[in-house]
Amino acid sequence: MNDAASTSPIARRGLMLVLSSPSGAGKTTLSRNLLKTDPDIDMSVSATTREPRPGEQDGVDYFFVTEQKFIEMRDNNDLLEWAQVFGNFYATPRAPVEQALSAGRDVLFDIDWQGTQQLADHMREDLVRVFILPPSAKELEARLHTRAQDPPEVVAKRMAQASSEISHWAEYDYVLVNDDIEISGKAITAILHAERLKRSRRSGLSDFVRALQEDL
């Protein structure tokens, strides 16, 4: 499917698309599928103070920074959101996101409700928030077991966390029940296409209309 916003001569500002969900609801798969099929959206690259793992590239997988540098970025308001996880800091640098949006490119975020709230505090008008729900608690647990990545005690912990995470569903602009990954993917694509066509994001619309009127 061609994106009308991409083929139009009218310039637009990019948007920030957030996908959030409890673990196992399908957020990561939906994110990967979207990145494969849509050439106008890129995954947000986080900054972190942890050490690079084998094969990870700076600026591709993460921006690897020292703790001192991270604190400087935080104190200078250079981060859109940040958190500390298991002793390491993670964050979304402001500059790359703003550069992408100004160039008319969209940025995808795979983050939780807390990070989403921080993004909303900084750049609410650019934000499109989608929450992914599982079709049932039973199905969520089955998916977590099917992944075969975590021992039973970790699955139990993720299930306990799911209720707390799902309680924030009403803070999102769109809520999808991921009963079928293909249907959910099409729904996200439809949301993205519609949001790209919003008048407020089409920065070149005024000039286009003015020129159109002059030619009439």
Q: Helices and strands in order, then pairings?
A:
Blueprint: H1 4-7, E1 16-20, H2 27-37, E2 41-43, E3 47-48, E4 63-64, H3 67-75, E5 79-85, E6 88-93, H4 94-102, E7 106-110, H5 113-123, E8 127-133, H6 137-147, H7 152-166, E9 174-177, H8 181-196, H9 205-215
Parallel strand pairs: 1-7, 1-8, 2-7, 3-4, 8-9
Antiparallel strand pairs: 3-6, 5-6
Helix pairs in contact: 2-8, 6-7
Report, as a whole number of angstroms, the end-to-end distance: 32 Å
* Count of separate DSSP helical elements: 9
SSE pattern, N- to C-terminal: HEHEEEHEEHEHEHHEHH
CATH class of the domain at 4-44 and 106-209: Alpha Beta
Proportion of helical residues: 40-55%
Spans with pLDDT under 50 lasting ≥5 residues?
Answer: none
Average pLDDT, rounded to a whole number, is: 92
The biggest sheet, with number of strands, parallel, antiparallel or mixed sense and barrel status, is: 5 strands, parallel
Q: Which architecture of the domain at 4-44 and 106-209 per CATH?
A: 3-Layer(aba) Sandwich
Structural class: alpha/beta
Query: Can you count the beta strands?
Result: 9
Task: Please characterize this protein's 3D structure.
With 216 residues, the protein is α/β, with parallel strands linked by helices. The chain has a domain at 4-44 and 106-209: Rossmann fold, CATH 3.40.50.300. It contains nine helices and nine strands. It has helices at 4-7, 27-37, 67-75, 94-102, 113-123, 137-147, 152-166, 181-196, 205-215, and strands at residues 16-20, 41-43, 47-48, 63-64, 79-85, 88-93, 106-110, 127-133, 174-177. The protein has a five-stranded parallel β-sheet, with helices on both faces. A hairpin with a 2-residue loop joins strand 5 (79-85) and strand 6. Helix 2 packs across helix 8 and helix 6 crosses helix 7 (152-166). 27% of the residues are buried. The mean pLDDT is 92.
